[in-house]
Specification:
Layout lengths: L1 H18 L37 E4 L4 E10 L5 E8 L8 E6 L3 E4 L4 E4 L3 H6 L11 E2 L10
Parallel strand pairs: 1-6, 4-7
Antiparallel strand pairs: 1-2, 2-3, 3-4, 5-6
């Protein structure tokens, strides 16, 4: 599980490492607060170990199609906290976006899909995600980890 999350994080943020860190003051002439010149680096991500996650299929615990990841919500340190899933519908008709806690996702890099630790009914009951509105995140709890 840890390896899979590490892989997903590397895939999701790999493009930042490749493109975001190479910016310098020369790239934006006259920019206020531009970063000082610094060395850049290049790395190659093996596609067996790191893959993009946007558009990845999400399946429920029983294997049923739940939707696709359309966005990732990160905290102030850039760590993924939740995923926006285009849930339900058929060929884009009748679907809606929901937000699920990052820990409710299990990444299966061998199959290019993600398992969601929620049932279809739980996902249906989740509030709809709308840009500009407060984000309500749903997740799964383990009964062994529930408070007494």
């Amino acid at each position: 599980m840890h390896r899979c999350l590490h892989t997903a994080a590397a895939a999701g943020f790999g493009f930042i490492a490749l493109f975001g860190l190479s910016a310098s003051a020369e790239d934006a002439p006259g920019a206020v607060g531009a970063a000082p010149d610094r060395d850049t680096f290049t790395m190659v991500l093996d596609d067996r170990r790191a893959r993009p996650i946007l558009g990845t299929e999400v399946r429920g615990g029983n294997g049923e199609h739940m939707g696709r990841i359309v966005n990732v919500i990160v905290d102030g340190a850039g760590r993924p906290r939740a995923a926006v899933i285009d849930f339900g519908g058929f060929l884009g008709v009748g679907s809606r976006k929901i937000v699920v806690d990052w820990s409710a996702l299990q990444f299966d890099s061998d199959r290019d899909r993600v398992a969601l630790a929620l049932t279809r009914d739980q996902a249906k009951a989740a509030p709809e995600y709308r840009d500009g509105k407060p984000v309500v995140v749903v997740g799964a709890i383990s009964l062994s980890g529930a408070p007494d």
